[in-house]
Design a protein that fits this description.
Blueprint (H helix, E strand, L loop, with lengths): L1 H65 L3 H7 L9 H11 L5 E8 L7 E11 L3 H13 L3 E12 L2 E12 L1
Antiparallel strand pairs: 1-2, 2-4, 3-4
Length: 173
């Protein structure tokens, strides 16, 4: 019987060693999986940071290039101060097309980060003009340096007199 006890003892010790080794392998496996996830996440962060640095470098070089065009852009975009000439310029365009105008500024929406300043306008006219003069006037406005959007156009012609009512906005930056 001593022989069977030794075998049972060896089997019990072997099983205990196998259980301990299995537990150690499971714990190490989880640790390795966690470390692999951390390494993958770190690689992603390094790639993203590297890409961000590359894009920042490109943006900085583009910013330096774009500074050359800034004076032309500032000349192209209408400022609030330059908008003061809008009434005079619009009346000049109207006179060139035999169309007397009455321009009224209604209100202003302030400049925001995404949107330009919008000044609401109303244009009224009553004259013996014809449709051809009106079209030439609108083409003059379209080709002017001002950014104008008409929301409503009301045109009536009775007894050789044309009545105009325009509502819209002129934009400035």
């Amino acid at each position: 019987m001593g022989y069977q006890k030794q075998i049972l003892k060896l089997v019990a010790i072997s099983l205990a060693i196998i259980v301990l080794i299995s537990a150690a392998l499971i714990i190490l496996g989880r640790d390795i999986t966690n470390k692999a996830s951390d390494i993958t996440e770190t690689k992603k962060n390094i790639f993203n940071n590297s890409r961000s640095v590359e894009l920042l470098t490109l943006l900085q070089s583009d910013a330096a290039t774009s500074k050359r065009y800034l004076p032309q852009m500032e000349n192209f975009l209408i400022s609030k101060d330059q908008l003061l000439n809008f009434s005079k310029d619009l009346n000049l365009m109207a006179q060139q097309n035999n169309l007397p105008l009455n321009l009224t500024f209604k209100g202003e929406t302030p400049l925001t980060g995404d949107n330009p300043r919008q000044t609401s306008i109303s244009i009224n006219s009553e004259s013996p003009s014809n449709m051809e003069n009106l079209i030439k006037f609108l083409e003059s406005v379209e080709n002017s340096r001002y950014f104008v959007k008409f929301n409503s156009l009301d045109i009536n012609q009775n007894n050789n007199r044309m009545r105009l009512n325009f509502d819209g906005q002129v934009f400035s930056f």
